[in-house]
């Protein structure tokens, strides 16, 4: 069953899944609390906290299930899932029907739950309000982690196209050397350096950045929220978004570039085994690299829930799809 679901899960059937979940809630509203009481674990800084920004219920369920299964003590892991308001009911039904596995904690939120995300505070919201359709608020929420989670000191950002294969508790012991962002670097030789992402013919870019600085990846990022607040990285991000309103400094649709600017000189390279990339486009990743990876990342267009997924990697994702969910009987 699970392989059939994943093989057939086109974006259209994922949308159907969200609709079915919503239907279940309309049919039986009292079974699904609108706003369940927050658990004390949600803001306990002694626990391991993850942020996932997504509108894909199935993908998020795989991230959570895989991380829970890999954890030595799942009850110490807390997942903060933030979605668009229209998808929140679907997430609520899913996690009501299938409570978080193995005692992990899951907090479900919509970005409308954060009042500071308004046009006065945020140039991103202003650009969306102005009709800039290239900007998706969900994608930019990662720049607001310290404001979203004021009581937390550290958060790991996981994208929804990853699978966790090892206990991530050790990420909380990684020494970031006073930097804000822990990430795996992606440069090799002359490739994937800042010159690829920024327009160095602009004096302001040339002034501030080294063109041969090494780029890093989103997917698995350890963020020290206290240092982030101290260094004002969100404010810096806002400045760059405003400077680039005409799109001359960098491709304004690239969230990575916004990150490369905002955390420039503030990123600590993580060991590459924390985050192995390319499963959404590269058919020849070494099996050994995949086996020893703490997290594998299906970055690229061939997502594991799509028909075009690379066959040799598909099972690494589908084995975490919860086949007991009745809505999946398509
Ligand atoms: Mn990704």
From TrEMBL:
<dbReference type="GO" id="GO:0000139">
    <property type="term" value="C:Golgi membrane"/>
</dbReference>
<dbReference type="GO" id="GO:0071555">
    <property type="term" value="P:cell wall organization"/>
</dbReference>
<dbReference type="InterPro" id="IPR002495">
    <property type="entry name" value="Glyco_trans_8"/>
</dbReference>
<dbReference type="InterPro" id="IPR029993">
    <property type="entry name" value="GAUT"/>
</dbReference>
<keyword id="KW-0328">Glycosyltransferase</keyword>
<protein>
    <recommendedName>
        <fullName>Hexosyltransferase</fullName>
        <ecNumber>2.4.1.-</ecNumber>
    </recommendedName>
</protein>
<keyword id="KW-0961">Cell wall biogenesis/degradation</keyword>
<dbReference type="GO" id="GO:0047262">
    <property type="term" value="F:polygalacturonate 4-alpha-galacturonosyltransferase activity"/>
</dbReference>
<dbReference type="Pfam" id="PF01501">
    <property type="entry name" value="Glyco_transf_8"/>
</dbReference>
<comment type="pathway">
    <text>Glycan metabolism; pectin biosynthesis.</text>
</comment>
<keyword id="KW-0808">Transferase</keyword>
<keyword id="KW-0333">Golgi apparatus</keyword>
<dbReference type="InterPro" id="IPR029044">
    <property type="entry name" value="Nucleotide-diphossugar_trans"/>
</dbReference>
<comment type="similarity">
    <text>Belongs to the glycosyltransferase 8 family.</text>
</comment>
